[in-house]
Design brief:
The protein has 4 helices and no strands. By secondary structure, the chain is mostly helical.
Length: 107
């Protein structure tokens, strides 16, 4: 039960960051709930790939970028140029957080 609560809170925080970035880039209001849904879709795809033991490597960044761009366009209803920019910024942010966690826990 605690694990599920932790996952929900994590995706709400990530959704807030997504809504914040979309608000800065597109100057449109995106709710945290919509941001959490947009961020949850690449998370589900990554989880399915990890469970099925498919190693995507750096191709995973491209998958995340494409899913975030599509989610920004069709779920958050942003224009294409803004959805591509938001997806690029958010993918870079996720890469930086991932690298920081890897370096922090590797030693």
């Amino acid at each position: 039960m605690f694990g599920l609560l932790l996952v929900v809170v994590t995706y709400l925080i990530l959704g807030f960051f997504y809504a914040w970035i979309a608000g800065i880039v597109a100057r449109e209001e995106v709710s945290v709930k919509v941001g959490a849904v947009v961020v949850l879709i690449p998370g589900i795809v990554r989880f399915v790939l990890a469970v099925s033991d498919i190693d995507v490597g750096l191709l995973g960044l491209l998958i995340d970028y494409a899913l975030l761009a599509l989610g920004s366009k069709y779920i958050a209803h942003l224009e294409w140029k803004y959805s591509l920019i938001v997806a690029a910024v958010y993918t870079a942010l996720l890469l930086a957080i991932g690298l920081a966690l890897v370096f922090m826990f590797s030693s």
